[in-house]
Specification:
Layout lengths: L1 H9 L13 H9 L4 E5 L5 H8 L3 E6 L2 H13 L4 E5 L12 E7 L7 H14 E12 L12 H7 L4 E10 L2 E9 L6
Parallel strand pairs: 1-2, 1-4, 2-3, 4-5
Antiparallel strand pairs: 5-7, 6-7
């Protein structure tokens, strides 16, 4: 509940994470892969969804903050693009499209409770097309720490159904953080 209140008040102004610029990790991916269907989990005001749509991707986005989605829809309309935005909880989301060739999560998963993370991972495995990419960014924490963040146990559970392609650790606003790129298993033809 505290996190929901935090985000509500953050979106009354301009949240510090809402830079209006897509990160280089996403841009590099888009430069190297042909367009397909994508899903932006925790899409906020739509910056990354719009970037993907401008590159020819068919994009869906979800965020639990109605104000963020209203802003995303306004920005998308001004850009002359079509993006399917929904207000909702990612753990209860049932997309009308998919499976997805790319799923992007910048700061959504790391905010979930342990039980919600399990539900998210179960749904994620269903949403990804064979050979699809999952780009995940989040703050890191130790397994013994309580609170938000991605711990090694979370990463281990992703390895149950995804292949880790790359991991880049850094620091963001004095928090250890990481960019992770996973692929889902492909099909054997």
């Amino acid at each position: 509940m505290f996190r929901r209140i935090f985000y509500f008040f953050s979106y009354l102004g301009k949240p510090p994470w809402d830079t209006g610029i897509s990160p280089p990790e996403l841009m590099d991916f888009l430069d190297e892969h042909p367009p397909g269907q994508s899903l932006d989990l925790g899409c906020g005001t739509g910056t990354n969804a719009i970037t993907m749509a401008q590159r020819g991707w068919k994009v869906s986005g979800i965020d639990f903050m109605p104000k963020a989605i209203r802003h995303a829809r306004r920005k998308t309309q001004q850009a002359g693009l079509q993006i399917d935005y929904q207000v909702g909880d990612v753990t209860q989301f049932n997309p009308s499209t998919g499976p997805f060739d790319l799923i992007l999560d910048i700061g959504c998963f790391h905010n979930l409770s342990p039980q919600a993370k399990k539900t998210y991972q179960s749904k994620l495995s269903q949403w990804l097309a064979p050979g699809a990419t999952f780009l995940l960014y989040g703050f890191l924490r130790n397994n013994s720490e309580v609170g938000f963040g991605i711990c090694s146990a979370d990463l281990a559970s992703f390895s149950n159904f995804l292949n880790l392609v790359s991991r880049t650790d850094s620091t963001d606003r004095n928090h250890p953080s990481s960019w992770l790129q996973y692929t889902s298993p492909g099909t054997d033809l």
